[in-house]
């Protein structure tokens, strides 16, 4: 009797163990994986927007995106945190911001948006410019802040479920000085990538820093001449046969840096200050020239030049050049309506301003939506 009971128990346990492993295996198989083939992006081995054309231009292979860098934002400076208080509660709430961000993500995806930008040190919470707020996901030695990682984990998990890609920035000017030295910068980079490996997220493209610029950053390794070192560091890290796609972004007015482009998987630049059509087209030409004969995607993940209904809008020009374009929206000076802007904190993450509606409706027109 005991022997029979043992056999039955063993069989039941074996079935449960097999079922559990099968479920875990299935879960991992279903993860969102971003990859590159030539100058196209693929999700789970298939080109994005498969077979999609718009006005005769190829949409397949693009990552149409929006700058949503404040999804994990916080201000740990007691002297400035009240600047970001919600009008209804009169206080700032990082978890509320994070939860409302996640709640809005399915709507963004329904319009055809397949990617967005986050940053561990955010972006200017007033659109442009910095002051004494403290928004950094790292301790001074480069170790990760648990509260930031919990918020990031929630967003990446939801993006994984929705088959969305995240451009994840590590450093931002105006906050990088909160890491004490170059050793801490390198540690933060390693810790960030190791955390992603541990969580097994493969829907992430790493942007080392936002707009590498000799006048913006405190640490030399984040400036144009040396940022390629961090790009290579990430490229050389591999686990279970996988490594993260990586690049860094260039500011609109400055030339692209060949050493950084050569080390990267894609060319990434911002286009905010390129106010004339000619300047924008010249920048695109320069991006194509610097990559040379190497087939690699070109991405713009920050641009506040709209005019979406014009055939000379930055969005449309980018599409004509098979470039992934990214929307940058903030509350302009003098505007207090919380509906406006995805970068200005506090943020209303819904699609409820004229600018937001115009952008998302254009994305839907171009991609066909879901």
Can you characterise this structure?
The structure is a single chain. The chain is α/β, with parallel strands linked by helices and 370 residues long. It has a single domain (45-367), classed as Glycosidases (TIM Barrel, Alpha-Beta Barrel), CATH 3.20.20.80. The chain has helices at 2-29, 94-110, 146-162, 182-199, 228-235, 258-263, 277-291, 314-320, 354-367; strands spanning 34-37, 40-43, 46-47, 53-54, 57-58, 65-67, 115-119, 165-171, 204-209, 245-247, 249-250, 267-269, 298-300, 326-327. A six-stranded parallel sheet has the order 10-9-8-7-6-14. The protein has a three-stranded antiparallel sheet with strand order 1-2-3, with no helix packed on it. A hairpin with a 2-residue loop joins strand 4 and strand 5. Helix 2 (94-110) runs parallel beside helix 3. The longest helix has 28 residues, at 2-29. The radius of gyration is 22 Å and the shape is globular. The relative contact order is 0.14.
């Amino acid at each position: 009797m005991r022997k029979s009971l043992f056999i039955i128990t063993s069989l039941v346990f074996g079935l449960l163990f097999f079922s559990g492993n099968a479920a875990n295996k299935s879960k991992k198989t279903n993860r969102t994986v971003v990859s590159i083939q030539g100058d196209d992006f693929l999700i789970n081995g298939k080109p994005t927007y498969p077979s999609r054309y718009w006005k005769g231009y190829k949409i397949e292979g693009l990552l149409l995106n929006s700058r949503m860098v404040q999804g994990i934002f916080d201000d740990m400076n007691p002297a400035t945190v009240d600047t970001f208080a919600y009008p209804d509660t009169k206080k700032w709430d990082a978890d509320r911001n994070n939860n409302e961000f996640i709640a809005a993500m399915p709507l963004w995806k329904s319009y055809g948006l397949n990617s967005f930008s986050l940053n561990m040190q955010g972006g200017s919470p007033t659109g442009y410019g910095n002051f004494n707020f403290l928004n950094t996901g790292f301790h001074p030695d480069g170790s990760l802040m648990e509260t930031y990682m919990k918020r990031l984990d929630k967003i990446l998990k939801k993006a994984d479920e929705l088959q969305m890609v995240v451009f994840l920035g590590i450093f931002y000017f105006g906050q990088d000085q909160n890491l004490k030295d170059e050793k801490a910068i390198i540690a933060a980079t390693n810790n960030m990538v190791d955390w992603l490996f541990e969580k097994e997220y493969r829907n992430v493209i790493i942007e080392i820093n936002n707009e590498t610029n000799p006048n913006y950053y405190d640490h030399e390794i984040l400036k144009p001449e040396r940022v390629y070192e961090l790009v290579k560091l990430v490229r050389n890290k591999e686990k279970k046969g996988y490594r993260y796609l990586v690049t860094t972004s260039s500011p609109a007015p400055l030339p692209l840096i060949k050493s950084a482009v050569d080390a990267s998987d894609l060319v990434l630049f911002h286009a905010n200050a390129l106010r004339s059509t000619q300047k924008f087209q010249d920048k695109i030409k320069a991006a194509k020239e610097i990559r040379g004969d190497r087939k690699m995607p070109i991405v713009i993940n920050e641009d506040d030049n709209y005019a979406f209904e014009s055939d000379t809008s930055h969005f449309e020009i980018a599409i004509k050049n098979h470039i992934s374009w990214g929307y940058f929206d903030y509350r302009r000076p003098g505007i207090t309506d919380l509906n406006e802007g995805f970068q200005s904190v506090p943020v209303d993450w819904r699609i409820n301003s004229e600018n937001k509606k115009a952008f998302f409706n254009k994305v839907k027109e171009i991609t066909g939506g879901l």
